[in-house]
UniProtKB/TrEMBL annotation:
Domain named ILEI/PANDER: residues: 107-195
GO MF entry, a single one: carbohydrate binding
Signal peptide residues on this chain, from the entry's feature table: 1-21
PANTHER family the record matches: UNCHARACTERIZED FAM3
InterPro entries: FAM3, ILEI/PANDER_dom
Protein name per its UniProtKB record: Beta-secretase 2
Family, similarity comment: Belongs to the FAM3 family.
Keyword annotations from UniProtKB, A to Z: Disulfide bond, Lectin, Secreted, Signal
Subcellular location: Secreted
GO CC, alphabetical: extracellular region
Species of provenance: Rhinolophus ferrumequinum (Greater horseshoe bat)
Recorded name of the encoding gene: BACE2
Length: 235
């Protein structure tokens, strides 16, 4: 083909393509509603907002656990420490059985006794280990817990100054590994059972000592806690 003829075809093809592009633009303009550009942008934005998936609010679990306890178990959580004005807490089956709101927490060692079969609270009491000689009464309280009992113990403020050896022996006999390591204002939490054995995987005890080099509260240990699920008695 001659060069002049090739050039002519290219020009005709360009003209045809331009006409097709113009006609396509004309049709598109006729089909799209005549709305302001801002309205179109708002429509696109609102469509994007509708596509955002919102996660459902997590369901609150017993004693503020992250996950729910399995069926036929008791939920528990024990807290101690966290500064001068932070009171110890014992939660059992989503009920605060020792704490500031219940008005039955005090300086020393706080103890709650729960009937393992029914889940009912038998007794709660605190024993001041700084301002009084209460090791004897506390030992009698522990030894008086009936068989098939759950015992929960937490310190508030100081639980060691006047804690005598007999009281330590009574708590150690229930399985405590840390009672003899208690120091001034140590945070300590302990769960045990009387008359039966808890499963091996149950979180039972934790301790934290006052250490100005490590703890954020001057002279007061940081908060510690344990939580878990105790299997109910098989029926």
């Amino acid at each position: 083909m001659r060069p002049r003829a090739t050039c002519t075809l290219k020009v005709l093809f360009f003209i045809l393509a331009s006409v097709c592009a113009w006609y396509s633009g004309y049709l598109l303009a006729e089909l799209i509603p005549d709305v302001p550009l801002s309205s179109a942008a708002d429509s696109i934005r609102s469509f994007g907002d509708r596509l955002v998936l919102t996660a459902p609010t997590p369901k609150r679990q017993k004693c503020d656990h992250w996950t729910s306890c399995p069926p036929n178990t008791y939920a528990y959580r024990l807290l101690s420490g966290g500064g001068r004005n932070k009171y110890a807490k014992i939660c059992f089956e989503d009920k605060l059985i020792i704490g500031e709101k219940t008005g039955n927490v005090g300086r020393g060692i706080n103890i709650a006794i729960v009937n393992y079969t029914t889940g009912k609270v038998i007794a709660t009491q605190y024993f001041d280990m700084y301002g009084g000689d209460n090791s004897g009464p506390m030992t009698k309280f522990i030894e008086g817990a009936p068989a098939k009992s759950l015992l929960f113990m937490v310190t508030h403020d100081d639980g060691s100054s006047r804690l005598n050896d007999d009281a330590k022996k009574a708590i150690a006999a229930l399985g405590s590994k840390e009672i003899r390591n208690m120091k001034f204002r140590s945070s300590w939490v302990f769960l045990t059972a009387k008359g039966f054995e808890l499963p091996a995987g149950i979180q039972r005890e934790k301790i934290n000592h006052s250490d100005n080099a490590k703890n954020r509260y001057s002279g007061w240990p940081a908060e510690i806690q344990i939580e878990g699920c105790v299997p109910r008695e098989a029926s």
